[in-house]
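Recap from last week: sequence in, structure out.
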Amino acid sequence: MEDCPLLLLLDVYQLCLQHKNYTEAAERLRDFQSSLLSLQSAGVSPAASPPASWLQVRASQLLQLLILQSRTPYERRKVLQLLCDGASQWVGEALDVHKLSALAQILREQPLSISQELLSEYSAAGLRVECQRLLQILQDGGHFSLARKVAELAELPTDSLVIEEVLKDQRLLQQVGQWQSPQSRAHYWRKCHQTFSTHQLSPGAASGFFRSQAAGHLAPGPLVPEQAEGLAEKELLLTLAGHWLSLSDCAPSPALEELEQQIWECRITREVVSRRAGGMSRLYRPHPAGTVPSFSSLATLYSFSSLPALNCPLLLDISRLPPLHGAHAALDAARTQALSSLIDRLLDESRVHEASRVCKYFQLPHRDLRLALNCRALATGETARDQLHPDIQAILTEGREAQESVWNRRKRLQRSSSQERAPPGGGSPQPMDPLLRDLEILKDECIHGKIFCRQLLCVYELSQDLGCSFSDVSSRDAGEILRSLLSCRRPPPDLSDRAQAVISSHGIPPHTVAQIVAEEGLRSWRVLGEERGQAHVYNASEIRRSFLQLAKLCPDPTLVGLKLLDNLGSVPLTQPHCSEY
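Predicted structure tokens:
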């Protein structure tokens, strides 16, 4: 038995436990592997040598014994690393030496060690139990980074660890007296969000954290100016809760709406407090660039109000709006007035979906919202004129009578003037699409939300120009619609307004607008290159004027210039008109 490979393992055992010579032990381990591989390749073991399968079993048992008999965490870590590097296959079925070695490395600076119970009765479930024990000790000691590594090794959830870490930071800020500063708290909440993002916290856990933090803000009490900052902070926390909840695979709309309603309750109260204090609403107060982020600016940054899950088409259904008359008020007079003012601002920003949701939350009848949605219902063809509410029909009738009165007055003035020639048709109004006239009346009647109504009007006119329905124009590719509009042979006089309506309603990004405007300019110039004579001179001036007007459609006209340079090769520079640009 002098040539038995197990003798090499006995040398390894002695070198590790007695001499702590891990370098030479690694060489003996490699010699053992070579001997065993030679036996396996020979197929039949010599008479004096035991079978290779028997040697493998005994090698596994001996190496496990080596791990168990290591007296200190340092020795055990060195042995596990030795086996990882050269003999993991011999103990792989009994122990996961790679995970055990990694765990030992994590604990190398801590007075902790892997339990003997796990090493003697190893299993994947046992490893998870041991890691749970170790990470709890590390967490209690404030070693959150190490605790996360242990959790990741055993594939344990790390949500509670990350949350406990940020709560520790909160307690520290309170201890040193910085928690009283709104700027410090704003920084803290932003850091929490960033930490959760970095460690990929589950959306439900992150949302629950921010929601629980919001629940501890502002117990009911009298409305005083000092509450404004706390209300803004609570709004931020609820916004972050909704932001994280929206990241779920199937974000529940009712839960998001519940959070949004609570956010608006804070906004309404802030508006009431601000009005009583005689100041400008903090909700819409501008924040100077480069200043420390405030609760309001962060709430705007993480807002989830434009989520598709919330902006469902039913919100634009006029039949679902609170009635203008006889509605039961959910708010007192002061809050109703404050909310109505906030809805006005939403409509001025064309945030009609959000305005509709908020009115539904608080059962607030809002005249301008109803006018805007009736304007949409007419433009889309969802509702006929005779199906509108009697109040809306009365507005349209009154508007038509006012228009006819204006035209009749003009007609009488033209007849009484002998020095002026009456225009063709005797001064009567030009034939007009009745639906277009109704849309104009509703737009003019709307005090807030005119931009939204103007967009509807322009899209409707574009649908008539292109010979398709309103819904077809709305569903088509935004870039294609804009190209079709700008390339019309007979562009309408309000081309810029219509183009801007398409850009706004479809959210076309500036670089796309610049590309389309540049392409249209180049197309016009190529056509101009084929003309001669007086027509050429006139058209050159007209195209230049039109192009400069279209360039204003892009928020950054520099982008238009860059797109022109990219396509300059397609312009016939040899033509005389090129020197005019």
